[in-house]
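hey so i finally got around to running the thing on that chain from the lab meeting. sorry it took forever, my laptop kept dying and i had to restart like 3 times. anyway pasting the input first so we r on the same page abt which one it is
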Amino acid sequence: MLTFTIRRLILAVPTLLFISLVIFLLLELAPGDPMAQVPLTVPAEVKEQMRLALGLGEPMYIRFWKWIVQFFWIEPQVLIDHYFGTTFAEGKLRVISWQTRSPVMDIVIQRLPQTLWVVGTAYVVGILIALPIGIYSAYRQYSWFDQAGTFVSMIGFSVPPFFSGVLVIVIFSVWLGWFPSIYDTTLVVDSWESFKRQLQQMIMPVMVLALQITAQISRFMRASMLDNLNQDYVRTARAKGLGERVVVMVHVLRNSMIPVVTVIALGVPSIFGGAIITEQVFKVNGIGQLLITAIQANDLPMVQTLTFIFAVLIVLFNLVADVLYGLLDPRIRYD
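ok and heres what got predicted. didnt touch it at all, straight out
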């Protein structure tokens, strides 16, 4: 397993370099001009000077190489300096946002807690609800519980978040007045009262996101459980006199979790990517909203850095899913 993990990590390096090149070229070839947001009263020669200051006068390969050095070499040095008090990155040029003229990673770190509070909580809640629903729905196939779970899952799949988000705002914020309709990103949790306010403003966006997550994972869990419940090893375990709880919760569940682990592991990067539509509806100042703002402003360094971070997370959690396969199923061996 260790050899497999090391080999996959080494192979991930050229993969990520190729992904970064593809992202860079796509953004370079995409329509749009960073100077489009500049007022029309600004003279053309001033716009050209601004363009040169952003580094747009250099060839594409030079700008790509500078970004690679900044992201893979300078930004890790900044992290080391922050934690250990060193000065490795002092005076070196970091990845700078064209829109705010501040380091991209500093902005990402500022926005990340808001995304983790909302999307991360929704993901955990969705998994904790989906797994028991999927297990019991498969065990009691075609029961009223299974029918109700299927109905709720179809709603979760069918209703887009821009509709369900507005719907819960109208019901719970406008009509009932229970929760705030806009997420207060300036709230500092430093007391019991502020913690309760944080929970109140998280309930509606978490509710919308958890519905989608529960619908997806519960269906995967149900289908995987049904496939394993009809296997020969289950009949053998029952014939040996094992209790039904042991058969279902130990033997069947462990084998059924193998495909579900893929869905859960590959969904983790979406936590860091944020829920773009939901964050827009509830005005959560997170990573998803940051990406939308950067795209609208043609802020290429911000868009390139965010999309590449998402790619890194996807590659990483693909590896995590493969390792978990080996832990869940002893028959899987990586040579």
